[in-house]
Amino acid sequence: MFNAQTFRNELLLNDQDIENGFWFLDELHLPGTLTPLFASYMAPAVTEGTLKAYETLKLPIHQFHIKIKDSHYYQCTVPYKGDILARIEENIAADSKLFPRLSETFWHYMNNELLPQFEKMDAYRQNGFTLAEAKDILIELYAFYKRAWEIHFEVVMPRGSLGLALEDAYQKLTGDKNTTIVYDFVEGVMNKSTETDRAVWQLADSIKKSEALTNLFATTSLENLKDALQASAEGAAFLSEVQQVLNVYGWRIANSHEFSDETWIENPIYIFEVIMEYLKKDYNFDEEFAKVVAEREAKVASLLAQYEDSTEKATFMQIHEWALQYWGVDEDHHFYIDAMLPAKARLLLLEIGKLLVKAKAIHSAEDIFYFYLDELVELVQNPADATANVTARKEMLAQDAKKDIPANYGTPPQEEAAPVIERIFGTKSAEVNEEEKTFKGYAASKGTHTGIVRIVRNQDDFAKVTKGDVLVCKTTLPPWTVLFSIAGAVITDAGGILSHAGTVAREYKLPAVLGTKVSTQLLKDGDVVTVDGTNGVVTIVN
């Protein structure tokens, strides 16, 4: 329930919070500064979403508590207060019931809750509303954000548990303690992220088949491409194809989940940028994806052929079947919740911003993002000149972006993170050997590659990456997957082997070392490194 009186105190990290808990900077999910309005929706959604979802799943964790300090996103993992061993047994029982119907559960939520609400948000924009009605829309969106992220955690956490169950079944079958090999057995599952990559690749492929379009993309700046395409019949036809792709896959924010960033659907320059990346490489998505599927099937067949029928083999086969059914759904939830929700929310909020511009409360519709939700609810009810507030907030964000932000506040807990949390988030500390010029992370995708470092912070940096380069970043987002078809290897600061970067790296057969904590600090553009994704080691060559 939204409470304007207590909202800001619950949202912002204070001294009492620091005294009572351990708060770490969560750059896996939301690196950089957050606008007040996005923080107003996102932080409570994760806080309450994990509380409800973790109780449903009987996880041995109470919740993730999110608060904001210096415009950054801090997380406190609140431990379960009861009998941990008994709770773990409850979680195992709950997961076992869920595994056979995980995909069914997700699509039930999609079809009965998420998609109808997205349609309702679209209807608000299309039909129009008054400033007096905006308060209810803002609070309705606040409640929906919480529900969407409750669903998010209900579907994402069992995936981690399913992965651990597959690891356990593999070890019991084979005796092999190197259980992370099981993630090779769930590669090549089509999902909304790979569907998007395929759709964009098809656009790039159609360009390659046209001399006129090839020349146009080779000689025209991104900013002028749309106008240049509209100037010819062939270009206009291609632009229509682009729009068809955007209508299905364009519901994503270019660089983050932030309301302040443009969406693909608003500006085709972002998909043009991705198309340009595909044009750099002789790459056939369908052929490469088919290879991944064939390799996965061969590995599984070879494994099973080594063992006679047994309870252990049957258990492994059953869990593997569930994992294959569900693995792609995890990326689907990224598409609908992590990407589509903030994209549609941004466009709806901009309509409220336009009403406030007409009321002379702000100069630009985008200024709406610089209010906390309690302030915005008050402003739509009592419009008044708030331009000074917007200016102050923009200055605050600029200053916060320059600050040396602490990695954590409070006293670190003594207990180790739960295995499922470690697999997803990557919780171990940085390991740097200055003498040997190495640092370690999670061995997320096998193989070794030596290449030139390219630091990528947002989509503006995509053009730096050429064939064989080592992609180095804090974390990756779904729009970045095109880079995985170009890069030679991946290194991240944040994340475990079941993070987005790990999942996608394995799909594209890229060596990956994740959760290093320090890669973007130690490395710079032009450095040469060797990425050992089998052992989780990065060596600085020069």
List the keywords.
alpha+beta; Glucose Oxidase, domain 1; 18 helices; 542 residues; four-stranded antiparallel beta sheet
- By CATH reckoning, the class of the domain at 426-540 would read Alpha Beta
Give a count of the beta strands, DSSP E runs of length 2 or more: 13
Number of helices: 18
Which word captures the global form? Answer: globular
Round the Cα radius of gyration to an integer and report it.
24 Å
Task: Kindly name the structural category.
Answer: alpha+beta
CATH topology of the domain at 426-540: Glucose Oxidase, domain 1
Strand percentage: 5-15%
Q: What is the residue-mean pLDDT, rounded to a whole number?
A: 91
Indicate the low-confidence ranges by residue numbers. Answer: none
CATH architecture grouping of the domain at 426-540: 3-Layer(bba) Sandwich
In the sheet with the most strands, the strands line up as 5-6-13-12-8-9-10-11-7
Can you give the helix content as a percent range?
40-55%
Termini gap: 55 Å
Q: Quick one: CATH superfamily of the domain at 426-540?
A: Phosphohistidine domain
Major β-sheet profile: 9 strands, mixed
Helices and strands in order:
Blueprint: H1 7-11, H2 15-20, E1 23-25, H3 36-57, E2 61-69, E3 72-79, H4 84-98, H5 102-127, H6 131-174, H7 192-208, H8 211-219, H9 222-230, H10 233-249, H11 269-279, H12 285-305, H13 311-358, H14 373-381, H15 387-402, E4 408-409, H16 419-425, E5 431-433, E6 438-440, E7 442-445, E8 448-455, E9 470-473, E10 489-492, H17 500-507, E11 512-514, H18 519-522, E12 528-532, E13 537-540
Parallel strand pairs: 8-9, 9-10, 10-11
Antiparallel strand pairs: 1-3, 1-4, 2-3, 5-6, 6-13, 7-11, 8-12, 12-13
Helix pairs in contact: 3-6, 5-6, 5-13, 6-13, 6-14, 6-16, 7-10, 7-11, 9-10
